[in-house]
Amino acid sequence: MHEFEQAHLVEKTPMTLKGGAFLATVPTPDRRVAIPRTVGSADRSQLDAEAVNEQTLNAAHDEGKFHAQYAMDFVGPSIDTGFRVLKYASRRYFVLTVEVAHILFKHYSFIERKDEAFLVGMHELKGVWGGKPYPVFAIGRELASSVPAQLLAKAFGSTIGIADEHPRCRPPEVLEAIAEYRKDAEWRGAIMIPGASWADFSYHSSAEHARSRLEILFDTSEEYLDTTQDAGEEESFEDMPTH
Fold first, then answer.
1. Which residues of the chain have pLDDT under 50?
2. What's the rounded Cα separation, in Å, for the pair 187 and 130?
3. Terminal C-alpha separation, the chain
4. Which of 16, 95, 157, 230 sits most deeply, having the most CB atoms within 10 A of its CB?
5. Is the link from the previous residue into 14 a cis peptide, with omega within 30 of 0?
6. Does 224 reside within a domain?
7. What residues form DSSP beta bridges with 238?
8. Whether residue 131 is found in the same domain as residue 211
9. Average per-residue pLDDT in the chain?
10. Angle at alpha carbon of residue 181, lines to 179 and 187, rounded to 5°
11. Claim to verify: residue 60 and residue 126 sit in the same structural domain
12. Residue 12 domain-assigned (yes or no)
């Protein structure tokens, strides 16, 4: 970011860059979704949509043919959270979701770096963690010169009441607090990487349950739903395009 900003923006335009990072893992807690480019036949509406999606993804052997028929998208709680957190980014603060902060700060505890962990605040993010205050972390960017707010915070020895100045600490010091969020029963964005060397990331009960459910879905994806008792209401496809 710094190199691009210096080479293409700072001396040529009044624009600067800001950004952040979030992490999504599939098949859980986030998902790949195959979106048909054309409307299919009416009888497929009797199939479970999630099961059909899994069948389509697992049967996609020909990449070129797949992309001709489907558009690929990614959805899930980690992605939703990431976009909510990015609104708090600024030129000076590169924001992080809890999951990214966990991994990054854990890495920093094994190497010699002078980076500090910043807490940009506790924010109620729409659709995230049931509306509970979510901690937005950040790492600070080294700018060419200090901004007035930095000097003010330094003079008073506190960031309280000073706009765009936030509490900081050494990254390893906040790891224990971050890990506690994964233990909450409503924490839906926790990543699970079975091959991870760190135990914190190799297992998560809700993620394991979701993966097991997807395996069952794939096994039953071609079975039609029982419509003998409730056939439902089917809309007409006569006026819809098929190509």
1. 219-225, 229-232, 236-237, 240-243
2. 9
3. 43
4. 95
5. no
6. no
7. none
8. no
9. 75
10. 135
11. no
12. no
Cβ-contact 164, 146 below 8 angstroms: no
Residues 137, 213, single domain; the answer is no
**237 CB contacts (<8 Å, ≥6 apart)?**
39, 41, 42
């409730």: which residue's tokens?
230
Phi and psi, residue 131, nearest 5°: 80, 5
Strands (E), the chain: 20-21, 31-36, 70-75, 93-96, 117-124, 133-140, 168-169
Phi-psi category of 169—alpha, beta or left, where left has phi over 0 and alpha has psi -120 to 50? beta
Q: Which amino acid is at 45?
A: S
Query: Residue 134's closest CA among 91, 188, 93?
Result: 188
CB 128 within 8 Å of CB 80: yes
Q: Which residue has the tokens 């603060």?
A: 93
Task: Give the pairing of strands 133-140 and 117-124.
Answer: antiparallel
Residue with tokens 């950040």: 138
Closest CA to 26 of 138, 170, 191, 147: 191
Instruction: Please state whether beta strands 31-36 and 133-140 pair in parallel, antiparallel, or not at all (unpaired).
Output: unpaired
Name the residue range of residue 132's domain.
18-25+78-204
Structural contact between residues 190 and 24, judged by C-beta atoms closer than 8 angstroms: no
Q: Give the β-pairing of 20-21 and 93-96.
A: parallel
In the numeric block, which tokens belong to residue 228?
């003998």
* 234, two tokens: 């089917």
